[in-house]
Write a structure and sequence with these properties.
Number of strands: 2
Helix content: over 70%
Structural class: mainly alpha
Strand order of the largest sheet: 1-2
Strand content: under 5%
Distance between the termini: 65 Å
Radius of gyration: 31 Å
């Protein structure tokens, strides 16, 4: 059983998946920082500094007008936080677009590398043509 487990772990697919998950987790931190620190402030400029995160509707409990979402939650009020959802959707769309652009760039680089390798690869030696083979067979049969 231990040998089977060792063989399973040693397979390339499992190792590739593990590396992918680790790189993905590190990449997530980079993308989140890029969205939060670089892109959202620019989006905020174009939207007049509007931040949707504090938009909510009180479903139960007493909350003073103008109270932030976190303060309303701390006060124990039941809130319908639609602003946080809107910001999550906006962040998702931004992240999805950034990842799309990244994948597009990586695919383009791979394609260009593949074309260069294909151009640099020596041409396959030309084999005999069909006519040459038939001529050889005819000559062999005549003997």
């Amino acid at each position: 059983m231990l040998k089977e487990f060792k063989d399973f772990i040693a397979k390339g697919n499992v190792m590739d998946m593990a590396v992918g998950i680790i790189i993905g987790a590190a990449f997530t931190a980079i993308v989140k920082s890029m969205v939060a620190d670089l892109i959202n402030p620019i989006v905020g400029l174009f939207m007049g500094g509007v931040d949707f995160t504090n938009l909510y509707v009180v479903l139960s409990g007493e909350v003073a007008a103008g109270t932030s979402l976190s303060a309303a939650r701390e006060a124990g009020a039941g809130v319908f936080a639609y602003g946080s959802f809107i910001m999550a959707v906006i962040n998702f769309l931004i992240i999805a677009f950034v990842v799309f652009q990244l994948v597009k760039a990586v695919n383009k680089a791979k394609e260009s590398t593949a074309k260069e390798e294909e151009a640099a690869a020596p041409a396959a030696p030309a084999g005999p043509t069909e006519v040459d083979l038939l001529t050889e067979i005819r000559d062999s049969l005549k003997k």
